[in-house]
Each structure stands twice: as structure tokens, then as C-alpha cells.
User: Fold this.
Amino acid sequence: MKKNRMNWCMLIGALVVLIFSLSFSTSSGTARATVPAPQERHEGFEDMRRAEKLLRDAKAVLAGAPGEYGGHRDKAIKRVDEALGEIHEAIEHH
Assistant:
């Protein structure tokens, strides 16, 4: 039981780190006077697509896990869906 709980904590912690790192890496904090070069835009999409794949993989792991864990598994899946939505909005906004 403790080992299983630790695995869940590690997975959720990894998702949190991924989401926070994406939020900091996508905004430079400075305004640009010019439009980014196409190559820069492509690199941003590459990172976002990679993050999207990782989140989809995490969602599949969560969905395939046995048990409900007091509703926390479903909450984690919902948060992954929210993160995926944020990624899609960021790509559309870019």
C-alpha cells in the first residue's frame, strides 16, 4: 500500500513540475517589439507537443490504474485534462 501511494505521489509530483516548467518556459517576461522568427515559433510548438504527449501518457497511466484512491485518481485525470486544455490554448494563442 505504501509503495503504491508513493508511486502516485511521484506521478502527481512529476505532473506538477511539468506544468509549472511549461508555464515558466513559455513566457520570457519581456515584451517583444517584433514577431518571433518562424523557427522560434516552431521550437515553442515542439516543446508544447512534447509536453502534450507526456500528459497524454500520464493520463493513460492514471486511467489504467486499478482502484479509485478515494476519488483522487479521477481528480488527477481532470487536472491532466485541464493542463492539456491550457496547452491547446497556448498553441492557438501563439
About this structure: The chain has one domain: 2-23+37-93.
